[in-house]
Amino acid sequence: MTAPFCRRMLMPLRISSQGAEQMSITYRLYQPNDVEQVVGVVGRAFPHVGPFTVAAWQKLESRDHVTVVADDGGRIAGAIPFDLRDFLVRPGVVLRVAVAHAVAVDAPYRNQGVGSAMMSFAKAEFPAGCDAMFVYTGGEGRAPYTFYQRNGFVDLMYSRPYRLSDLPAATPSGIRVTPFDAAGLGPTLDATFQSAYAASAGFARRGPGYWQRALESIIYVEIPYDFRIAYAGSATDMAGYAIFGLRQDYAALLEVAVRPEAAGVIADLLQAVSAAAAANGAKEVRLIAPVTHPAVAALQAMGCQGGSRSAGISVLAGQVLSFESVWRKLGGEGGPALHVWTPRQENAPGREFDLVGQGAAVTLEMKRSTAHRLFLCREDIQASVAAERITSPEPALPLAQLANTFRPAPWIYHYIEWI
After folding, report:
1. Fold of domain 6-130
2. Domain spanning 163-315: CATH superfamily
């Protein structure tokens, strides 16, 4: 992702109420000498967060991170930063994904298609190193959700906001609460997390160094926390843990993991987090999670209620960049060959492509949104064929083999991964 590449496009830019002028904008990857302008563009687009610094951005770009910029003759008109992550779509299947942080466009260039052009550049160039592109967004039916929808992202997972305001004062015995040493605790956290979520997916691949990298994410530059951890057991052998971040008025519950044999400890961990939040002046504990998250039932037992979808929820949206690469990682080459067809839709051309496998190709027909969900293990192919979301001219599909290739798994969102 570091090789320089640029594509020139002519963009109409309205610069005054009297008319518009044709300007040449270059869409390319970030270069080190862009740093001050990029920091300025992002800061002006999102004045309610930050502040960003040149040093912080330079650190971001030295990691698994890439930024697409719109360059108007030396002036950076827009930027989209992406984190590059290894992401589990089901246990054992890891995709390399680019996760968009935000779309920042300077005021004179807004509503001219600059943001969409930057996204188009990313979709054209990233497949060389990425299998898919994701974004954490929200606000169905309004910006920024509608921007991502227009640019090909499809819904993959929904998470609701949960808020607990009746905070207990006592920390249960057997639970320790300490400052969070992400580097030192990494191996212990990894062992507990792998046990807790062995059958789940929908999150970045963990490893002993994951938590230190996670806390260096751009979001924690914008919105800094005082990070703490509550855990049961010892620093080298945890039955369960809850990582949380303190702000002035609230505590954000960032990640909870409990070994299956210690499931009952989750209530004690949440009580300890709540007590620590209250002791530090916070008014509530917040969690964003799907209803299947293991902390949700325990929080509801403490009096917490989740928000409704109509009131606004968080959406993980995504799209496949390389169907061929994802097919290989799913093990598709060991099953039937495929011919996939999707129709033309508004803002999206139709596609036909072939995927290598055994024997004569099987034809599958579906909307593009269904294709993206299927290859990202979010669609049950047998149910989709029965409901005619997926069709075929062939009367007898090898559904058992296809179901094994595309088999889904439960997805769990962990708040620590927000970007």
Report:
1. Aminopeptidase (3.40.630)
2. Gcn5-related N-acetyltransferase (GNAT) (3.40.630.30)
DSSP code string of 110-148: TTTTHHHHHHHHHHHHGGGT-SEEEEEEE-TTSTTHHHH
Of the candidates 264, 157, 149, the residue with the CA atom closest to the CA atom of residue 201 = 157
What average pLDDT does range 193-216 have in this prediction?
A: 97
Q: Are 136 and 116 in contact (CB under 8 A)?
A: no
Give the count of beta carbons closer than 10 Å to the beta carbon of residue 108: 13
Asked, colleague to colleague, whether 163-315 and 322-405 share their fold, the answer is: no
Tokens 């800094």 found at: 224
298-341 residue pLDDT tens? 999 999 988 888 888 899 999 999 999 999 999 999 999 999 99
Return the CATH number of the domain spanning residue range 322-405.
3.30.1050
Domain ranges in the chain?
A: 6-130, 163-315, 322-405
**Would the pTM count as exceeding 0.90?**
yes
Task: Output the CA–CA distances (angstroms, integers) from residue 364 to 224, 335, 386, in the order listed.
Answer: 47, 14, 13
Report the b/e string of 153-172 with b at 16+ CB within 10 A: bbbbbbbbbbebeebbeebb
Omega before residue 179 within 30° of 0, cis: no
What is the DSSP-derived secondary structure letter of residue 334? G
Q: State the pLDDT confidence band at 294, using cuts at 50, 70 and 90.
A: very high
Which residues, in sequence order, are bridge partners of residue 354? 339
